[in-house]
Write a structure and sequence with these properties.
mainly alpha; Globin-like; about 80% helix; about 0% strand
Amino acid sequence: MISQILVNLIEKNADHLAQAWLKDVRHNPKTPFYHSFREDLLLERARSIYQNLSHWLSIPTPKEQTVKYYKNYGRERCQEGFPLAELIYSFILFRRHLWLFVLHSGFYDSAYELLRVLELNNRVILFFDRALHSVALGYEECAREKPQ
């Protein structure tokens, strides 16, 4: 099972994680579009991803639900004018800040806890892989529909 304690810790600290991500994405040279986009919307979206992590990592959550949600997410970012490469990099930063938080939480003092962290890592990787692929699919669908 996924370490629910770790997931709860992440969700409880969603605001802190979202703030750290926002600071990074607003100043990162790989995400210039984010530098001038509405900060309140970026923060709200980041907070939502971290707050709903247990839903997305849950075994009962159908893969199709994740695909549908993140295809729509990609479509919406396309409509807002986000470059696809920056959108993908923003997800890389989401995952990076998540793991920096887990690593600094000091949660893995024993071999058992380390196994739980690795289990969570596997689920997070699977989630972000699905989410990123779905974001790209939705983005590409939107881009094909846009008048040239």
